[in-house]
Amino acid sequence: MKKAFIFDMDGLLINSEPLWQATGIEVLNAHAIPVTLENMLQWTGSPVPVIVEKACALYQIKADQAVISEQFLAKAIDNIIKAKPIMPFVRETLNLLKAKGYRMAIASASPRYMLDAIVQSLDIADFFDVISSAHELEYNKPHPQVYLNACQQLGLKPKECVGVEDSKVGMTAVKSALMTCIVVPHSDVAHHGYWQLADYQLNHLGEITPEFLARL
Asked: Which segment of the chain is annotated as a signal peptide (predicted)?
């Protein structure tokens, strides 16, 4: 029996990916690293330090990656909090799961202070019993540690939890944690065959209905 849902944040609960992409291009270009939107799309779901590392390697640029990552994160967080880009059906889904007695958590590659700030700004913090940030752990996605940490904090076994993701990297983390996996990919990439690794592929969170929950 499933007892909890563990959600990714970016691209799933909030429509932040365009903001991350635009911010990444702006900050990296300012450091003479000529990344493009195509590059940023390829790196969707990767932590900021990994994106900066890949960008520097791709364009053979020597730079202070820690400083660039810090600037990237700070600007992205500011842009996201200002925009408040909550995804469709998020509140309805969270209310449904709460009414059905499911516990909920967030498992994200983003820093904890960012996650706290965003859920507070969107007024959804009270839905979540646990917020698990890979920035506080040894490994980031696609390693399953951030999901396993969320399960542990909930006091549940992975098989009792459902992980919900929108990226290939996140899906890999959920499946590696031996959890049931729901993916809600962006329409631009929803046709790819690799989503078959997930247990369920949805078009949007609104497809999590009482009837769907009964089938889990």
From this structure: none
At residue 206, what are phi and psi to the nearest 5 degrees? Answer: -65, -15
Known catalytic membership, residue 8? yes
Q: Confirm whether pTM is higher than 0.90.
A: no
| Mean predicted confidence (pLDDT) in 165-178 | 96
d(CA 128, CA 49): 26
Does residue 10 have an active-site annotation? yes
Q: Where are the domains of the chain?
A: 4-15+85-214, 16-83
Please compute the mean of the pLDDT values over residues 69-84 and round it to a whole number: 93
Query: Quick one: 4-15+85-214 is in which CATH superfamily?
Result: HAD superfamily/HAD-like (3.40.50.1000)
